[in-house]
């Protein structure tokens, strides 16, 4: 039995309601406290007028909504966001917002930064809207951008608010309607082929139903998007965390907390019941934390090995080469030269500058070989020099778990790319259903790649929806 009271609205009452020519849901409450009835009314006076509902007010959702409204100005566009819009944009890049990556212009190289999607994205995806297009889009709207030495693109203001203000202003100017604090809890199709969308605001027992011609799901890694996709016939690749730090089983690392290595080569070896599992290797900066390792090289390893790491309960080993630009024979030679030149100096106080190490880390290496105290360089045997060189080139750590990367939490998993057309971002399962962003089984490494996926997917989806709407208008006028 329906708990909501029933109401009937007669034609003479409806004729007195003055409304714009759009589809809305109207709500009537009874005298009983906290009971509501949702009645869906179609009040459009233009048969050709169509509606798009975007589920999710993040980067992909807002960008796609703006693009759809730009291509088809008469399209009704509603963005439904249960939290704060563009919340991930606000915190990304330490609050600066890493908009995209300016160094990857070749599609194959660009796609190589996506552990999930690296094969599929090599085609036309970025040709339709790539990093250069993204930078031009924001620049054309008054956002000044800068490209840093590693290719990351930020607003010159160094504030994510600049990006948020630009998107919000453009959405408002285009006529996109943003509704926050509401959640789309179910989507189904009607007999006439439209979408029936249930929207709830549980804090006040608020329920509404609206109909839409198009739906774009852009909910990021939220469980909400996966449930809606499944309701509409899609399968879901199990979501697992990506982009996280490593917890290391080595209490002595605490003394190195805050030490940064500009360049290391790190190899991840995993423990799993699978007979064959790949090893992942990355080169780049690494940071020592009070719980283990972080930095770009670790985050990239976590992304590429995300699913295998989940399967192995985040247990494995990490082999680090702290002097990747030097051959082991060169490292040995530098140590021998230093010994000969500084024979009477304490080993703990001096080391070859060519190795590019910091004193705290040098002490850490010596402690592994029990070479602390007043030991002089003259007392170091050749075997010990070889052992030091080997540890610098091949230092093994035990990974005992994952930490959190709070600025840019990313998920591997979601709607399989095989179930959508990347040329349009339209579902292959349900017509007029579109996806964009991280709700798909696509995720990138750090450096602006996850946002670029959002901009590209949102732009393509918005363009496709706008074009479909325009075609519908032309057919209506021709009839």
Automatic annotation (TrEMBL):
Keywords from the named record: FAD, Flavoprotein
Pfam families cross-referenced by the UniProt entry: HI0933_like, HI0933_like_1st
Cofactor: FAD
Signal peptide limits: none
InterPro entries noted in UniProt: BaiN-like (IPR004792), BaiN-like_dom_sf (IPR023166), FAD/NAD-bd_sf (IPR036188), RsdA/BaiN/AoA(So)-like_dom (IPR055178), RsdA/BaiN/AoA(So)_Rossmann (IPR057661)
Membrane-spanning parts: none
RsdA/BaiN/AoA(So)-like insert domain segment(s): 240-410
Domain RsdA/BaiN/AoA(So)-like Rossmann fold-like residues, every copy: 51-463
PANTHER family assigned to the protein according to its UniProt record, in alphabetical order: OS12G0638800 PROTEIN
Protein name: Uncharacterized protein LOC105167681 isoform X2
Taxonomic classification: Eukaryota, Viridiplantae, Streptophyta, Embryophyta, Tracheophyta
